[in-house]
Amino acid sequence: MLPKRIIKETEKLEAEPVPGISAVPHDSNPRYFNVIIQGPEESPYGGGTFKLELFLPENYPMGPPKIRFLTRIYHPNIDRLGRICLDILKDKWSPALQIRTVLLSIQVLLSSPNPDDPLNNEAAELWLKNEATALQTAMDWTQLYAR
Predict the structure, then answer these.
(1) Three-state SS at 83
(2) Does the keyword Hydrolase feature in the UniProt annotation (predicted)?
């Protein structure tokens, strides 16, 4: 049996979709979502379509959802396994947050990489040393993997 909170959040995501974001529960497991985030146009990820997986563990909403990128992406806060370094997915999680808030935060992270809190150290170093090259690499990867 699915908690009312998850049912309400899922219904709201379907009734009021977030622009540039799609989150659809899997048929066989309503705690598992197939997510698509369109890369923000003003970012090096513009024009890209990124697939993610989101899972709501048993302790949700007391604990954060588990989410990762399935599409390869060059970003200082996303590692090669697709794990995301985002405070609200760790120590800044609050039960007041929702799936939609998390997805919007990830979309914002694509527009505003934070090389000072990296998960991908190589990308972060390049971002800090030569931002133009890092942005070009992110655009190249978007063309290669997210089209």
Answers:
(1) strand
(2) no
